[in-house]
Amino acid sequence: MGIIAILSSPSSFAHNGEMEKIRTIIASGSGIFHYEVEKHKDIAEALTRFQQANVEAIVILGDRALTSATFEHIVEKNLLKGMDIPLAILPAGDNNIVAENFGANHPEPHLALKSLLEKHQKGNLPVTEIPLIKLEGVRGVGYLYGLFFCAGEVIKQKNLFKRKIYGKNLFKGFRNWLNIVILIQSAYRRSMGKNKLEEAIRINRNQRGAVVGHFFMLLITTLDKSFWGVSTPHNKQQDKAHFISVENTPKAILATGKLMLGGKYDGIDHVGNIIAEIQHARIVLQTPFVLDGSYYETDETGELFVTVTNRLKFIKLS
To answer: What is the pLDDT of residue 156?
Structure first.
C-alpha cells in the first residue's frame, strides 16, 4: 500500500482528550504521513509535502474550518498541481453531516481513523467524485468552500448540526424517525405564528426571477443526503447541486415531513416545496446560515452568491 497522509487540527479536539487517542492510533500504524496544523498557513506546507511524498490519499481530521481551508488551497492555489488524490472527511463535530454522508459510522474520530487505516491496509478505499459549492459574501472571510448549505427557520435547531454519528442499526432508524417527527411538530407549531420581516429570504436561482418569502428550510448541497439520512434526488446532473426550499407554512412543513419520514425527497414539487437542480444562486438574507455544520453571517451587502465549482474525489468510509 502507498503512503496515506493525515492532516489534523489539534485545536479541534482541545477539550476532550481525543487528539491523544488519534496520535496513539497513528503511532501504531505504518505508511502514515501525519501533519498537525496550528495555523492556516500550515495547510499549504502540509499539502506541498504530501505532494512531494506522492501520497495515495489525504485524511482530513479536524473541524469544518480545516476542511474548508483545505478545499481552498486545493482549488484556489492548486497546491496538488493536478494530482488525483482523494480526500477522506472524518467526523469532528461540526462537519459530522459531511462525514456521515461519506459513510462515517463511528461516534469518535479516533475510531473512524482506525477503521479507515485498516481498510487502507487491505486496499479497500472506494472513491466517489463530487463538486464543491463556493459561497461568496461571507462576513469576515469573503468566501468559503463546502458541500452543504442551509438557511431558514430550521437552522435555529442547532442540535441538527451538532449531533453525533452512530453505527447502522435498527435503533438508529427509529431514532431518526422520532427526531423527524419532533422537528416537524415543533416547526408546524411555530409556523402558525407571525413571520418576522427581518427573517425573509430572497432567492434567485439559475438567473430566474427572484422569489422573496419566509422559509422553514433552504438547502443547497452536492451531497446525497440531508438531515438524518434523508436522500436527495439521485438523478442530479454531474456539475449541479440539489436545491430544496420549503416555505415556512403549516402545509409546506407537513408535506416536507412526509417526504422526510419516507426517507427521501422525491424530486417532485409539493405545496410550498421546490426541489430542483442549480448551477448557481443569489441569496439575500439578514439571518445566520450554516455551511457544512458551522454558522456564519453575510457581509454588509447581505447577499450570498452560491456556485457549483471544482469536482474533487472523496473516499467512501463504509
So the answer is: 94
